[in-house]
Amino acid sequence: MKKINTPLDLNKIKFLKAGEELLLSGTIYTARDQAHKRLAEAIKKGRCLPLELKNTVIYYCGPTQRPKGKVIGSCGPTTSSRMDTFTNLLLAKGLRGMIGKGNRSEEVRNGIRKYKGIYFITYAGCGALLNKYVKSVKEVAYGDLGPEAILKLEVENFPLIVAIDVNGGNVYGED
């Protein structure tokens, strides 16, 4: 199985194909619906963002409360299509990778090709298992959103499947 590290520049991902399994290590950020809305508003108003988007990976995840003795609670993926409204704006600002579950809209699939991004899926329903790949957690922004705050995660060998590659190859069978 291939292993890659963040940050994700185009040279690291251009050879990955839809359906390939890999292990990701490095920094990723959690962000869900409300955090995406705030990021998009900040971009549109020309404000500074709380994280650098260039070559960054965003994980569509809202972790549960951290149990005693764990770094993070259950941290499974959420439905990615809920972020579709904001995705191309973030891709245009340098976002390179996204992790979630489910297919993406045609608009996002086109944006992934245009901006040379990549969309990964991970194992839904396995959030309690996925937390073992998270080595540290730090809140970055929007703490008032609770589990939807943006968190910086350091991950090691986080299991992923390429769902939509930089050329538009799609495990869901749509171009």
* Span between termini: 25 Å
The CATH topology is fumarase
CATH superfamily: Fe-S hydro-lyase, tartrate dehydratase beta-type, catalytic domain
Order of helices and strands: EHEHEHEHEHEE
* Average residue-wise pLDDT: 95
Oligomerization status of the protein chains: single chain
> How much of the polypeptide forms β-strand, as a percent range?
25-35%
CATH A-level architecture: Alpha-Beta Barrel
Overall number of strands: 7
Largest sheet report = 5 strands, mixed, barrel
Number of helices: 5
Gyration radius from CA atoms, angstroms: 15 Å
Structural class: alpha/beta
**Helicity, in percent?**
10-25%
Query: Which residue ranges are poorly predicted, with pLDDT under 50 across at least 5 consecutive positions?
Result: none
Q: Which CATH class is shown? A: Alpha Beta
